[in-house]
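User: I'm curious whether this sequence folds into something compact or stays loose and floppy. Could you predict its structure so I can see for myself?
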Amino acid sequence: MAKKKGEDTVVVNRRARFDYAIEETMEAGLVLTGTEVKSLRAGKASIAEAFATIRRGEAWLVQANIPEYAFGNRANHDPTRQRKLLVHRHEIEQMEKFTQERGRTLVPMRLYWRDGRVKVQIGLGVGKANYDKRAGMAERDAKRQIDRALRERQKA
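Assistant: Here's the prediction. I'll summarize afterward.
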């Protein structure tokens, strides 16, 4: 994905595309406290175990780990608290309808800054079985071998 103007990635969930077949992505804002923002500015966060859920008509980011700010005081935040996602009503309805089917989930793909605000890219994904993962790895290996053979042929 090409870097857009005013974007700076904080963290990427590299396992998301390996564990899930992502059908669609959408952008959401995050409701954060001051020490969470400072911790993100320092580039510290983990969304590897995180997921999004819909409760009472609101979207939430669950199990995302934003560590405590090193210079924070006693009012520092809880690192794994649930954070509200800022999305439009029709997007919440779309997410809720998507997750009604078995095996579908909302996966955070990456956390990034856009124009001074923290955004999270949510992927609407279907869990992959182990054989799907192996097929994907075999496909990548075959493509790598073909590319290598073409480069060798061009050299000769």
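Summary: The mean pLDDT is 86. The helical segments are 16-19, 34-41, 89-99, 130-155.
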